[in-house]
Automatic annotation (TrEMBL):
<keyword id="KW-0676">Redox-active center</keyword>
<feature type="domain" description="Thioredoxin">
    <location>
        <begin position="45"/>
        <end position="187"/>
    </location>
</feature>
<dbReference type="Pfam" id="PF00578">
    <property type="entry name" value="AhpC-TSA"/>
</dbReference>
<protein>
    <submittedName>
        <fullName>TlpA family protein disulfide reductase</fullName>
    </submittedName>
</protein>
<keyword id="KW-0732">Signal</keyword>
<dbReference type="InterPro" id="IPR013766">
    <property type="entry name" value="Thioredoxin_domain"/>
</dbReference>
<dbReference type="InterPro" id="IPR050553">
    <property type="entry name" value="Thioredoxin_ResA/DsbE_sf"/>
</dbReference>
<dbReference type="InterPro" id="IPR036249">
    <property type="entry name" value="Thioredoxin-like_sf"/>
</dbReference>
<dbReference type="InterPro" id="IPR000866">
    <property type="entry name" value="AhpC/TSA"/>
</dbReference>
<feature type="signal peptide">
    <location>
        <begin position="1"/>
        <end position="22"/>
    </location>
</feature>
<dbReference type="InterPro" id="IPR017937">
    <property type="entry name" value="Thioredoxin_CS"/>
</dbReference>
Length: 189
């Protein structure tokens, strides 16, 4: 009898743990249903994909890692100052960060390849980009390792730093659809 009670107790604990875990994992089908307009280009993965720990750099040359953003959902945008679609979408990313950024969410633009710090700062000043950090992938190492073949490309990372979605091309990240997706993700935590 003691063995049966122990088995029932462990089964109940396992089911409870799985239910608690399921609550913290976003429902990809529900997220996909929120896609409208440009967000229809956003593809969610069935399984999260691990990312390499390749460094990125701030405007002062300081080395950083995507691991610094663990605990948050991240919209990781690869862009360049010379890329017209990238320049078009950057203000929408800035507004998304201004509206929803905080303890659970961060927009992280990473200028990849041929982008000087003065050029990035000049573009940010001209377009009044005030809520985003200046980050660089100067040799395209991170972009190359995760399969960025053109620009812009935006990844959505979960709080464990894994890629759960990818959008190729520019998008309106300030749209109702984009905000609904971010709100749904952060509500799952």
């Amino acid at each position: 009898m003691h063995l049966v009670r122990t088995a029932v107790l462990y089964a109940a604990l396992a089911l409870g743990a799985n239910a608690a875990l399921a609550e913290s994992v976003p429902d990809m089908a529900a997220l996909s249903a929120l896609r409208a307009g440009d967000m229809k280009k956003l593809s969610f993965h069935q399984e999260p994909k691990a990312l390499p720990d390749t460094p990125i750099y701030d405007a002062e040359g300081g080395e950083h890692s995507l691991a610094e953003y663990r605990g948050k959902y991240v919209v990781l945008n690869f862009w360049a100052t010379w890329c017209a679609p990238c320049r078009k979408e950057m203000p929408t990313l800035d507004r998304l960060q201004a509206d929803l950024g905080g303890a659970k969410f961060q927009v992280l633009p990473v200028a990849t390849l041929r982008n000087s710090v003065p050029a990035v700062k000049r573009f940010f000043a001209e377009d009044k980009i005030a809520n985003l950090p200046v980050m660089l992938d100067p040799h395209g190492a991170l972009a190359h390792q995760i399969g960025v073949m053109g620009l812009p490309v935006t990844l959505i990372l979960d709080p464990e730093g894994r890629e759960i979605g990818r959008l190729i091309g520019d998008a309106d990240w300030d749209s109702d659809s984009a905000k609904a997706i971010v709100r749904a993700l952060t509500a799952a935590e």
